Amino acid sequence: MINIVFVTNDRKTVSVAENSNLLRVSLREQCGLPFKCGGGNCGTCKCLIEKGLENTDPVKKKERTLLSAEELEDGYRLGCQTFVLGDVEVSWEVT
Ligand code: FES
């Protein structure tokens, strides 16, 4: 099992199986990651992998469309397109 820390939600931490989808975990465990489409089209689930970026799967084409090269470099991902392979800490903008 791996741990996901939802920093913006009072550092709520959940243990999940490897290769879990970040948005699906957030929905299931009510961790508060924003979303709309769930399919990589709206960008609402943009989030920052504060720790453990190396523990996420490769960036998808849809993420390259919705996030700038600089954002990707900084560790931003789309939660609905991101699968976790090890411990991560994730935060997002509250609007
Ligand atoms: S929820 Fe729309 S891109 Fe992830």
Question: Largest beta sheet: what is the strand line-up?
Answer: 2-1-7-4-5
Relative helix content: 10-25%
**Bound small-molecule species:** FE2/S2 (inorganic) cluster
| Run of helices and strands | EEEHEHHEEE
Q: Estimate the strand proportion.
A: 25-35%
H/I helix tally: 3
- Main CATH class: Alpha Beta
Description:
With 95 residues, the chain is α+β, with helices and mostly antiparallel strands. The protein has helices spanning 22-29, 61-66, 69-74, and strands at residues 2-6, 12-16, 20-21, 46-51, 76-78, 83-84, 88-91. The strands form two sheets. The protein has a five-stranded mixed β-sheet. A two-stranded antiparallel sheet has the order 3-6. A hairpin with a 5-residue loop joins strand 1 and strand 2. The structure holds FE2/S2 (inorganic) cluster. FE2/S2 (inorganic) cluster is lined by residues 35-38, 40-45, 78-80.
Concise summary:
With about 100 residues, the protein is α+β, with helices and mostly antiparallel strands. Helix content is about 20%, strand content about 30%.
